Amino acid sequence: MARAPIVDRLARFLDTGWEKGWMPPPPLDPAELIRRGSKGFSLEHEIAGRSREDLEDFRLRLEKLCEAVQSEADLNAVGKAFAYGLITRAIQQRFALGKLWREQPELAKTEIAPPIIVLGQMRSGTTRIHRLLAADPAHSATRFCDSWHPVPEKPDFRPLRGTFKLFMARRLDPWLDTIHPFGAARADEELGWLASALDHSAYEAQWRIPSYVGFSEAHDAGPIYAEFERLLRTDAGQHGHGARPRVLKVPQFIEDLPALLERFPDARLVVSRRCSEETWRSSVSLVANQMVIQSDSVDLAWIEQEWRRKIALRQERLERALKQWSGPLAMIDFEHLGSDWEGEMHDLYGALDLPLSDAALAAMRAEMRKSENSAHNGHAAQLRQFTEAG
Fold first, then answer.
1. What residues contact 144, with CB distance under 8 A and at least 6 apart?
2. Which residues pair with 269 in a beta bridge?
3. How far is it, in rounded angstroms, from Cα 192 to Cα 202?
4. Which of 192, 108, 186, 181 is nearest to 149 (CA)?
5. pLDDT (tens digit, 9 = 90+) per residue, 30-55?
6. Which residues in 110-119 are b (16+ Cβ under 10 Å) and which e?
7. Which of 86, 103, 214, 300 keeps 20 to 30 A from 161, CA to CA?
């Protein structure tokens, strides 16, 4: 529940600026956000490449999300600025991508190899599995900067923008890298692609917005993954590696697996399993860390209760979806991955009927050496303190 002193200084600066009229407070009205986010674009740019259902889904989600942020999240000045920035950027990207698909429709239809999808609860070892698979030169992966800045650029300044974004994020949250090891051009999850379609997963970890989470959990995820597929094909077309299987990973996948597999029915699946109690404690730690930056009234007991519910929901949906799955599937144990990762990877490649080359093993060993000195390793010690305090 700690936060860096710079957060409070920034909040006081923003509050003072808004009160004295030095700058206007950020609006969170859907119509105004659309007006600002679509500046420089036309309606045709939102429509291009998307169905009527996709368009209606985004507008409905925008309305519901803004309503929940304003009525439930109890954001401080920093949180309000973040909310405005995140939602406006999602709108800007949506119009910019539509403009791209209007001008280059073939990008959203790039041929791609069947992906490898890593599935598991948040904090269950999926990042390690994802990074090991992504290290294999036979595979491709999504860069952090491309996940959060999906519109292609020439020249490509996205790694620089991603580096600046992470620099600022680390100033506001000194514990960021203990929670997740980041790198602007490093392989990372496609959470930014889901956020750009206003899926709830990126937002529920930052704000207390139960009405939007409930709405989104019960709502058809089809349009979210239709946009996700277009983004994946566009990214593969831009980088020219569509023939190499993409290793995909976002914890939200297990909540929406049928909608995801409808888009990628020939995928290979990797499921990571970890003790639910340990997963819960680590998830609570992450969410509390994110929420306390953006709100002064964070309720730890509510976070604990909500993430017990969330983990149970995701597990139930994953198990139900896997009963219907007859394609390639590998199961990974978190503890075994920690004690003998090479053995687990051999078993994984065998289960998926994939060749494990010497080059792949060498790249994986290099990835493991890189992670040995990662700040992420400090999270276990922090969790022990959290458990003892509880």
1. 162, 166, 182, 183, 184, 185, 186, 187, 188
2. 117, 329
3. 8
4. 192
5. 999 999 999 999 989 999 999 999 99
6. bebbebbbbb
7. 103
